[in-house]
Amino acid sequence: MTDDDALRVAEAALLALLARLFAAELDEETVSILAAAEFLPLVEAACPEAAADLARDWTADDLEEAAVEYCRLFVQPGGTAPIAAAWLASVPSDAVNPVASMVRNLVDAGQLELPDSLSSLPHDHLAVLLCIASELRQSDAPVAADFMSEALGSWTPRFAEALEHSATSPVYRLAARWLSSLTTPASTEPQG
């Protein structure tokens, strides 16, 4: 495997993990994945306080506290909505959402299939977009860079900044930092 292939696979794995973080509340399995040797160096580099938080044994109360944080951030009105339409100023409420249309076109063309776990989410939900980005990056699809730039780079830098400031959980601050590093316009071009 070349260095470029290894980077592509690593980025795809990180995008998939981020999709998981934004799709649902933290659970024991997600905490274990984040604390695993594969991701721990990335966690420590991006957010040392998250590494310390993940290194301890999580209790049912900790998971409940994380669930409350997830709802406060991503579900309740006034939170940090992980939906492209909430962040795209150029999309009037009665207009077609360009990000959702891009996803619909990829699905309708048979280029990808959304997992059942994401089928109830809007097409412009961050978890859906990150899952697609992961699949495109993993397969080295020619449209991967365009998708990252147009579907994610157009709004996620502002979303990540807002999340970084409003999250009290180190895990969600970590997610904001990873998201920012992967989707800011300068980082959406494939490396190599």
- Average per-residue pLDDT, rounded, comes to 88
Number of DSSP strand runs = 0
Quaternary structure type: single chain
Secondary-structure class: mainly alpha
Q: Specify Rg, calculated over alpha carbons.
A: 16 Å
Fraction of helical residues: 55-70%
Choose one word for the global shape: globular
Main sheet attributes: strand count, strand direction, barrel closure: none
Spell out the helices and strands N to C.
Answer: HHHHHHHHHHH
β-strand percent reads: under 5%
Distance between the termini: 14 Å
Give the uncertain stretches in residue-range form.
187-192
Number of distinct helices: 11
What does this structure look like?
There is one protein chain. The protein is an all-alpha fold and 192 residues long. Helix content is 64%, strand content 0%. The longest helix has 21 residues, at 3-23. The model is unreliable at 187-192 (pLDDT under 50).
